[in-house]
Amino acid sequence: MQIYLDYSATTPTRPEAIARMQQVFAEEWGNPSSLHQWGNRSATVLEQARVQVAELLNAVPDAIAFTSGGTESNNMVIMGVARHYATPRHMIISSVEHSAISEPVRLLEQWGWRVTRLPVNAQGRVNGLDLQAALRSDTVLVSIIYGQSEVGTLQPIEEIGKIVQRHGALFHTDAVQVAGRLPIDVRSLPVDLLSLSSHKLYGPQGVGALYVRTGVDLVPLLGGGGQESQRRSGTQAVAAIAGFGVAAHLAREEMASETPRLIQLRDRLFDYLADVPHLAPTGDRLHRLPHHVSFYLPQTDGDTLTGKTLVRQMNYAGIGISAGSACHSGQLSPSPILTAMGYSDRHAKSGIRLTLGRLTTEADVDWTALVLRQLLYRLAPTPALSGC
Asked: In sequence order, what DSSP letters do the residues of 297-366 get, joined into one string?
């Protein structure tokens, strides 16, 4: 039995999206910037996908700029805001951001920018009072991740956005893990900028989008032909964008039924593993991504049994899970997310993540729980269980 439970890392591209991409590759392959019929056909494909992605957010199509993925979208925000200013200003992020935010911000600090990293509680959640205290007269941007990919915690984005809005700064959220899984309505949500990634919602890899509220101006990262309304130069990857559009459309259509199903499976897996002494949940159980299950190993010594060890052992059993953030899974170092949440370095090496998706069944969840339970009893026996 092969069971994939790493949907927060990437999702399998939907057959409908693949079919649309194949059609575009074969029949609508022109450069959308060209004025002839081949270019016009490709431009039509591009704008149809823009509408589909915009509808996922209840946005106007012109607010959507296509990018190469969530990392580029996040960098466009950080650097695009910073390059407006001749002298360094102040930014605020959370202490549990994805590296696509924390790394460009670190670079800005080397250039003299001041950065406040908001603390989080033990569940990984930001407190609005801390944000209010951190805002300064020279704060120009606040960026807070919507759904944390490693521990599943959802941030109070509406509350945070209202605080930032009252202050007059720009507010960005990395919604890569949320889009397509929970409803997002940018007409009511107080966000100025919002990042998306196609391959997190069953579209192809290598394409993403940035929502830019009307009136918000970013200095482009790339100089060139001025595509994407001067926001992102370079000939668009039309076929990939078309696949993204199809995936976004289907996610919007199916969310009302798929999200409750994922929540039921998520809670089933949590409940089945609740009495395993080797596992303790991480993140916020109430404010949580619908597909996300995560644990750490409270009894681990941090060397002989780590999250990576469990990933390897589960893989031998035909089950794909993740040790913390997939983008850092090649490094045996404490998770910066768990560390920010107050975990010791020893425990911050032991995090695991199981994320569910369209193809996940109850049988998959039940078998995974059984395998993980048996594996932990073998690798980390406790005195109470010895001899069993």
From this structure: -TT--SSSS-HHHHHHHHHHTTEE-BSS-GGGTT--S--HHHHHTT--HHHHT--EEEE--TT--HHHHH
CA gap 82, 232 in Å, rounded: 16
Angle (nearest 5°) at CA 203 between 202 and 209: 120
Is the per-residue pLDDT at 197 higher than 50?
yes
Residue 383's pLDDT is: 44
Model pTM? 0.94
The pLDDT score that the predictor gives to residue 342 is 96
Sheet of 292-296, strands arranged across: 280-281, 292-296, 352-355
Which pLDDT band holds residue 386 (cuts at 50, 70, 90)?
A: very low
User: 183: burial class by Cβ within 10 Å (0-12, 13-18, 19+)?
Assistant: middle
Q: What mean pLDDT is predicted for residues 317-346?
A: 82
The pLDDT value recorded for residue 388 is: 30
> Catalytic: which of 216, 221, 327, 379?
327
| Catalytic residue list contains 388 | no
Q: How far is CA 107 from CA 21, 45, 49, 82, 113, in A?
A: 37, 37, 33, 11, 9
First to last CA, the chain: 27
Mean pLDDT of 360-366: 98
For residue 161, how far is the Cα from the chain centroid? 18
Q: 357 near 316, Cβ under 8 Å?
A: no
Instruction: Please name each of the domains of the chain with its CATH number.
Output: 3-9+255-379 (3.90.1150.10), 15-250 (3.40.640.10)
3-state secondary structure of 288: strand
Mean pLDDT of all residues in 350-377: 96
Compute the Cα dihedral for 84, 87, 93, 97 and give only its sign.
positive
Of the listed ranges 104-113, 194-203, 289-298, 300-309, the least confidently predicted one is 300-309
Tell me the average pLDDT across 333-339: 93
Kindly give the residue spans of alpha helices, DSSP state H, lying in the chain.
Answer: 15-27, 37-57, 70-82, 99-110, 128-134, 157-167, 238-272, 307-316, 336-340, 345-348, 362-379
- In whole angstroms, give the CA distance from residue 128 to residue 377: 41
Among 121, 119, 169, 168, which residue's Cα sits nearest to residue 142? 169
**Structure token digits, residue 34:** 């060209």
Is the confidence at residue 331, as pLDDT, over 60? no
Pair of tokens at residue 206: 């290598």
